[in-house]
Amino acid sequence: MNTDTSITINGVEYEWQPEKGTFDILGTPSALFWLDPSLLTMLQPLAEEVGYNLFRLQVAASSSDGTDQEYDTIVTVLGDTFEEGFAQWGKAAGSAGWGTFEILYFQPEQGTARVRVRNTWELIMQRNLPKRWGCPFIQGKVIGLFSRALKTNCWADEVNICYDEQNPYVEFDIYPSSKTISTELAKERRLAMQEKEHALAIEIEKKTQQLNAEKIKAEAASHAKTKFLSAMGHELRTPLNGVLGFAQLLASATKSPLNESQQQNMQQILDSGNTMLSLVNNILLFSEAGVDASEMVLVSLQPKATITQLIKSVLPMANTRDIGVTDHTPDKLLNIRANEHYFREIISSFLINAINYIPVRGEISILAERGTAGYQRFIVRDNGPGIASHHQANLFEAFERLEHATGPISGAGVGLCTAKMLAQHMGGNVGFYNNPQAGASFWVELPLATQD
């Protein structure tokens, strides 16, 4: 049995070490692959991923590395002239499956040459592909070797290429050129980057147009909503005010005094009507706060007078539950930059919530203190039960009524959410905290009209 594990072909030594599962060529670890599918399935996805031009140049750059050493071997070992050495080198390379190399002509004085390579592995591997990338591996070798031979920078173009199964070949024209693989590689990378940037710019423009179209639709829908709610507000308020007005007239009639049962029924009509009117007003205010506030007018406002008026307006409601409301703000407050209507609604929302939700005979106070730099903080504090921890995250959400979704306390659950939006429209914010002793404090911070 033949136990030799080495062989020399065209001056190239091949050695197998079966016990290790390794294979060397000229003492260099090597491996054998099927061209199709093994090698093809490794290279084709890379070519498609990076683009065929960039892939070609990258392969050529890799294969040209080391050609200086190969040239020295050709000139000093394999032949007396470059042509003889190249022919011998081609035979050695052919024994490794690189094909057969032939110089068709060589004109050192003009610095030109033509080389034909038959049956190179690149041609055989790609012959069944619908899209091919040529022979950049052989191109890199040819450019490197002939640049040394002609003592000038050369380039090699694929001028003829044939993938015929019986006779595949490629021919290169070699000539002096200022092009180098590295410069062409850098140029192709810049071009690939520009193409990506262009594609990205087109995608951004497309998305921008879509967003603009959606914005126009949203603005149109918002305008239609605002117009509808404004019209409906008028339509709802008019009959409600009519019902309340006639109910008040009946309640105060002297010619035919109402008996106790009729008085209770009339009071029910008044209470229900006022509740309904309050709900309508709150929903409309919530809708108004949810639209663009770019046209909202902000002025320098003295808040003390507004707070005093608000306390007077809620006292009748507070008295029905025997709740005290006290103003602890200084007599002279710094002016704030705000919209008076919006400021009134925020404080009113805090006061009404406190009156509704704390126990009877409770206490409410209004305080003012300096907030963050350039802001004034207004606080509505009560001595009620405070806000349970599991409700705190949703406190300022729209239509959130916590555990009072059903029960005797009416409301739409938009007061605190509306207050937050109104404050933000004025450049401020709202918040709350539970008091150390008992109850909760709701606050709004608004910018000062002048910085002190």
Walk me through the structure.
The protein has 452 residues and is of the alpha+beta class. It is 49% helix and 20% strand. Strands 10-12-13-15-14 form a five-stranded mixed β-sheet. The chain has three domains: 1-32, no CATH class; 34-179, 2-Layer Sandwich (Muramoyl-pentapeptide Carboxypeptidase, domain 2), CATH 3.30.1380; 295-447, Heat Shock Protein 90.
Mean pLDDT comes to 83
What is the H-and-E element order? EEEEHHHHEEHHEEHHEHEEHEEHEE
* CATH architecture descriptor name of the largest domain: 2-Layer Sandwich
- DSSP summary: helix tally: 11
CATH fourth-tier homologous superfamily of the largest domain: Histidine kinase-like ATPase, C-terminal domain
CATH class of the largest domain: Alpha Beta
Instruction: Count up the domains.
Output: 3
Q: How much is the radius of gyration in Å? A: 45 Å
Percentage of residues in strands = 15-25%
Principal-axis shape equals rod-shaped
> In whole angstroms, how far apart are the ends?
105 Å
Low-confidence regions: 404-412
Sheet with most strands: strand arrangement: 10-12-13-15-14
DSSP E strands, number: 15
As a percent range, the share of helical residues equals: 40-55%
Main β-sheet description: 5 strands, mixed
Broad structural category: alpha+beta
CATH topology of the largest domain: Heat Shock Protein 90
Q: Keywords, please?
A:
alpha+beta, Muramoyl-pentapeptide Carboxypeptidase, domain 2, 452 residues, 3 domains, Heat Shock Protein 90, 11 helices, 4-stranded antiparallel beta sheet, 49% helix, 15 strands, 5-stranded mixed beta sheet, single chain, 20% strand
